[in-house]
Write a structure and sequence with these properties.
With 47 residues, this protein is of the alpha+beta class. The chain contains one helix and three strands; from the N terminus they run E-E-E-H. The chain has one helix spanning 31-39; strands at residues 4-7, 10-14, 25-28. The chain has a three-stranded antiparallel β-sheet. Strand 1 (4-7) and strand 2 form a beta hairpin. The relative contact order is 0.24.
Length: 47
């Protein structure tokens, strides 16, 4: 499973706030949306 990928000009990433119960991919096309995803911990690195 890929947790982050570049697809057709957008970033697709696993919404980690829903794990482990659901596997939902977010599609991010704007920098502001990526900043929001990082701020709300939808995507993050290792602790």
């Amino acid at each position: 499973m890929r947790t982050i990928d570049w697809v057709d000009g957008a970033i697709e990433l696993v919404d980690q706030t829903l794990l482990p119960g659901k596997h939902v991919m977010l599609r991010v096309t704007a920098v502001d949306d990526l900043v929001d995803a990082i701020a709300r911990l939808a995507v993050r690195g290792a602790p």
